[in-house]
Design brief:
The chain is of the alpha+beta class. The protein is about 40% helix and about 15% strand.
Length: about 650
Amino acid sequence: MVLGTRGEPLSWDESAAYRDRVKKAGIDQFIIHFLRLRYEKGFRSKEILKWGDELEGILVKFDHEKKRARLLLKASGEILPKLSNMETTCCNYTMEFADYMVECIPLKPYGGLINILNTVEANMRERRNGVQNVLDTDEHFFFLSTFPRLGCPDSTVPFTEPSYEENHEVSNSVFVSDRVIYPEHPRFKTLVKTIRARRGEKVAINIPIFKDTHTPSPFTEQLPDWDGEGGRQALPDHIYMDCMAFGMGSCCLQMTFQAFSLAEATRLYDQLAVLTPIMMALSAATPICRGYLTDEDSRWNVICQSVDDRTRLERGEVDGVVRIPKSRYSTIDLYISEKGQAFNDIEVATHAEALEELKKRGVCESIAKHVAHLYVRDPLAIYKENIEQDNETSTEHYENINSTNWQSMRFKIPPPDSKIGWRVEFRPLDVQPTAFENAAFSVFIVLLSRVILTYDLNILIPMSQLEENCKKAVKRDAIGREKFRFVKKLNMDEKCFEMCLERSATNQNGVSVFPDCCIYELTKEMTINAIINGEEEEHGFKGLVPILCDYLGAMEDIDIHTRCTIKAYLSLISKRASGELFTWAGWMREFVRKHPAYRFDSVVNEEINYDLLIAHRDIVQGKVNDSRVLPACKNTPQNTIADAQRAQMHRLHGCECNSEFN
């Protein structure tokens, strides 16, 4: 969700006088609210799970006569105003980075009885239909990770064309006009400008090209030479992109979970973090960038590079010094639960003064290091009207930093004067084209979170191995071609766990160091199929889907419709993992390579792009059932739970919800 602060944003140069002040105030705000709330349990959640999701989609206009599909730039001027005037019981619609994007979130968090999981898909479908209903007949709203020809000539309606005169003040992109950026909120252009200013040059995104039989080798492009940046930063055999729109203009599915306590939140954060690369690979839906087939399947590396504001020194390009190893959009670097500390075995940059202040004032070591790690970044958007704040009642300066550390997981403190509790956000997923799939991924993660807490599972692996898993997850056909480190047993033997901790050591920087034999005792390499569906051999890894089936089998309060729906969702996840079903990245890649207009040169031209999006549209609308990517199954998702169940939930837990939950 976009942090909706409004006001007059300061330029990067203007903000120089206030950056340290804002950072110190943010640390103070965190400490005050953390210490005030750290021991409170359930007072906000009323001891029931509440969770929500965020779905992002893109607007596309078809020209059926010329067989062209273009991005539709009218979210701000037409679509969102129409949606704001509609009466809806399902969701809120809001702005996103680009003027062709709409974000949809549930009107209220989900929670309470497990039967509510049978309402998620219908809610997601209604969200999409709400946007579709305000569009013209030749326009369509897609849950699509990335528009395949974003950055190609004549790819928007109205027509836009990048030029130095138009773009040099904001992005300076040679591919995408700044008119693509959402115009009605100052945050977005401010982020683009400050990232470029802090970095000292525009961002450089290089994604390896898929080398087909007729792809030039080496693959290079002649780029417009406005200031020499493109020619210097573009790598051979890579697709070069040069602005934030290529990353933040892509779409994802994110989920936020409210925990019962701080301890539960940190535990969920750590355990779910281990699953981020697995789910990244299963949801992969981005095999095309700027009109070329890539050698990766996920949007992740594109978006990481698109907001990388590190200077050349911080990137290690000057004197070989690496001060900040990753972009501010990246996978996590630290576990934050008490049990997770021994698995933090990689070097992490921290803000020394912030770390000292946090620890001095009583913030526990694990959380202090996490926050100090966030604070190696500078605030990107400082608003003149919001510099002065009451740190006792506000967390805006803290959220200024927290909300622009776009990591694979996010830890969220309770907002001031709210009934919302401690939350964690799960962030690695590419959005899926259908409501069925987005609901399946959401419900799968929800159920895993419940199983982790109910069965007291520990699936932690050393952070260095999680880092390697994430690097593998984005690769082409990672499900079929890669193996990932994972725990040997879902119920890790506590004696073995304690023994491994005893044999680990801590170096002078507080980083855990494991002997190889100790690592071997905890984890092994497995395919995603084995992790999701289990291993066949005796005493092999049981698999996440089988343990979810055991969990559901022990529950007596699930109606038959909900059981059937969850079974269909688990079947989708299981078959994606086994390779029986394509990921959308795999399906799109095959569609392109079998298209009659494809010349096996990695180029996705306008005709292929048009037919690809028409095929997406027909599958989403149910006109075509492609059993290569979706199971041929029917389920009965519902908009509401039964009145009796609703009454029971009201009696047991109350029904207070808040649309600000995400």
